[in-house]
Structure formats: structure tokens, C-alpha cells
Write a structure and sequence with these properties.
Layout lengths: L3 E6 L2 H5 L4 H13 L2 E7 L3 H10 L7 E6 L11 H7 L6 E10 L7 H18 L2 E7 L2 H11 L5 E3 L6 H10 L2 E4 L9 H8 L6 E3 L21 H12 L3 H16 L5
Parallel strand pairs: 1-2, 2-3, 3-4, 4-5, 5-6, 6-7, 7-8
């Protein structure tokens, strides 16, 4: 049997909230029951990057890996603490991110976003780690910075919401593309068109939980168990057999993050 991999989730609020480890364990037990055997927990600042690393030691029924980084919303913060975590040599640390550019919300000045994005690209190069990118309404600048700094060999655009042309630009630069529950939304026909064009060997599925629960679960917190809903939807959208799609996307994520053979 092959299993789903959630290539991108955020469980830190559960980990630090009421119930702590027990809440995370219950969430990941539901994921396991839904056919998920691996999750990658993503950092957005130094504190929750450290929490992502801590979660990898939990006794839970799925494999937990961590990515550390500074989100574009938080790019006014000092990167030094994140860089120290990245250089720690932690055995379950598999990437840098999520970093990138967000010109939709612009919670941080664009100049700070561009600077910290460039710094984290350099960190991924230095440590030979995967790079996890957040991109919203910023593909022109994103492509320019990646071309200037050099795209790390293993790079993914997470929760892709761009156009077919944006997808082509990502692929041309050597980036993989990860799809979340947004693809199921009623107003996402342009995204669906783009997702149909992505080569299967470059595609990943994720939840971005607790955000963006897929249809028919909108209005409730998202969780890794629902990556199966996203994956089944995308497989049907592309006219691909579910077990093949599950096997290939899980293999793609294992390659991206250098995870053990599944």
C-alpha cells in the first residue's frame, strides 16, 4: 500500500495550545486513519520553527519532519535565530522556509521581503536543503530574485495559486509545485487549468493546515487528514488513477526533502 504525504502543514498552534502533545497526537492519528504516513511541519519564524523541530520527536503514528524559516509576513524580523536552527544539524530538519514574497497582504515592506528571501535562498544553498517558497501576487519579482540568486536544486512553490503562465515560469526555473485545498474552491478555475499542465513528477499535495480546508470541509480548521481529499480531487481533475497519483506525489515529496524510501 502507498500512503499520502502532506508536504506542508502548520501544527504549531495545536502543539503550544490547550492539549499540546495530546492535541497533535489526535490530529495525526486521524491523518494515519486517512492513509497519511508523513507530514512536513513548516516554520514561519524562529519560535514556531523551533516548535516544528520539537514535534519531530513526538511518539505519533506518522513520520514528522520540519522546515525552518521566516515567512514574508515576518520578514522584518532578524533571520539569525532561524539560521542558527538551520545550522543545528537536526536529523529531522529537511528544508528552509517558508520564505518568499507576498504582495497581496504586504504585512512587511517589499524591500524586507526581498532581502530575507534572498538570504534564505543563500541558506538553502549553503546547507544543501530544500527551499519552500510562498508566492502571492509577486511572481515577476520572485522569478527575478531566483534567477539572480540561483534556484536551489530542490525547490518547491507551496500552495500554488498562480496562472498557467506562472506555473510554466516556475517549472522553467526548476521549481516543483505544491497544490493545496484552494484548487477545490468554486472560484479557482484558472488554478485548475494551471494544475492540469504540471508534469506529475513535479507535483506535490499539501493541506497548509490549519488554513484552506478543501471543499466540502470549508469553514472548519484544516488538518493533515484532509490531504487525501486534496489528492483525490487533483487526481480526478487530471484524469489520473488515484493510487498512481498518491504513489508519485509521495515519491516526489520524498525526493524534494530527501526523506527515507517510503
Amino acid at each position: 500500500m502507498t500512503f499520502w504525504t502532506d508536504a506542508h502543514c502548520h501544527l504549531q498552534d495545536q502543539f503550544m495550545g490547550d492539549g499540546g502533545e495530546m492535541a497533535v497526537r489526535a490530529t495525526l492519528e486521524r491523518a494515519s486513519a486517512s492513509g497519511v504516513n508523513r507530514v512536513v511541519v513548516i516554520g514561519t519564524d524562529a519560535a514556531n520553527s523551533a516548535e516544528a523541530l520539537a514535534m519531530t520527536a513526538l511518539d505519533v503514528p506518522v513520520e514528522v519532519y520540519a522546515v525552518v524559516g521566516l515567512h514574508p509576513h515576518d520578514s522584518t524580523q532578524d533571520l539569525a535565530a532561524v539560521a542558527a536552527l538551520a545550522r543545528s544539524g537536526h536529523p529531522k530538519l529537511v528544508g528552509i522556509g517558508e520564505t518568499g514574497l507576498d504582495y497581496y497582504y504586504e504585512h512587511a515592506p517589499r524591500s524586507d521581503q526581498r532581502r530575507t528571501f534572498s538570504e534564505q535562498i543563500a541558506l538553502a544553498h549553503e546547507l544543501d536543503l530544500a527551499l519552500v517558497i510562498h508566492a502571492r501576487d509577486a511572481f515577476d519579482d520572485l522569478f527575478e530574485i531566483l534567477a539572480r540568486e540561483g534556484v536551489p536544486a530542490r525547490t518547491v512553490i507551496h500552495c500554488f495559486t498562480g496562472t498557467t503562465d506562472d506555473a510554466a515560469g516556475c517549472l522553467e526555473l526548476g521549481c516543483d509545485i505544491s497544490v493545496a485545498g484552494v484548487v477545490t474552491f468554486k472560484n479557482a478555475e484558472g488554478l485548475r487549468e494551471a494544475v492540469r499542465t504540471i508534469p506529475l513528477e513535479r507535483l506535490h499535495v499539501e493541506t497548509d493546515s490549519p488554513f484552506l480546508a478543501p471543499v466540502p470541509h470549508r469553514g472548519r480548521p484544516n488538518e493533515p487528514a484532509l490531504v487525501a481529499v486534496v489528492g483525490e480531487y487533483v487526481a480526478a481533475l487530471r484524469g489520473e488513477e488515484s493510487s498512481l497519483f498518491r504513489r508519485q506525489t509521495s515519491a516526489n515529496t520524498a525526493r524534494l526533502f530527501r526523506l527515507p524510501a517510503n
